[in-house]
Amino acid sequence: MKRVDAFTLTEVMIVVLIVSVLLGVAIPGYTVARRSARVNQARTELEFLAAAIYQMASDTGRWPGGVGRNSSVGYEVWDLSTADAGIMQADSDFPHWDGPYANTIPEDPWGSQYFFDQDYRLNGQWRVVVGSFGPNRSGRNVYDDDNVYIILD
């Protein structure tokens, strides 16, 4: 009889078990790292947008939407690329506009628009922020824990 060298069923099952355990450990780590990278990307892009908004507000005395910086009127801009926002182009609500303050407004890492909110509810206070709705994309006046934002006031 010829001897045939091959793996036994037990050996194959042990290898499958080891690979499964390794994947079980690696996949959650990858998921956490991926989420963290996206949050960091959003923060970096928000810092850029915050700088553009500060420069525009310094020149015009107005936040995106054309509302005065000292106004108590709550105002939101859901698309920062519009003339209403005043960052890339401006309508007549921005005296002394000297832009564009940004050449492009990227989408956030989850595929949504960044927003400006003059009355964002944060820890019981109304704050001026530029932000992202975060991974769950739940937005427009939904103040949840996965939102990524920079406080402007």
Description:
- With 153 residues, the protein is of the alpha+beta class.
- It has a single domain, classed as Glycoprotein, Type 4 Pilin.
- It contains one helix and four strands.
- The chain has one helix at 9-60, and strands spanning 76-77, 115-122, 125-132, 148-151.
- It has a four-stranded antiparallel beta sheet with strand order 1-2-3-4.
- The longest helix has 52 residues, at 9-60.
- It is elongated, with a radius of gyration of 24 Å.
Summary?
By secondary structure, the chain is of the alpha+beta class. It has one helix at 9-60; strands at residues 76-77, 115-122, 125-132, 148-151.
Describe the secondary structure blueprint for this structure.
Blueprint: H1 9-60, E1 76-77, E2 115-122, E3 125-132, E4 148-151
Antiparallel strand pairs: 1-2, 2-3, 3-4
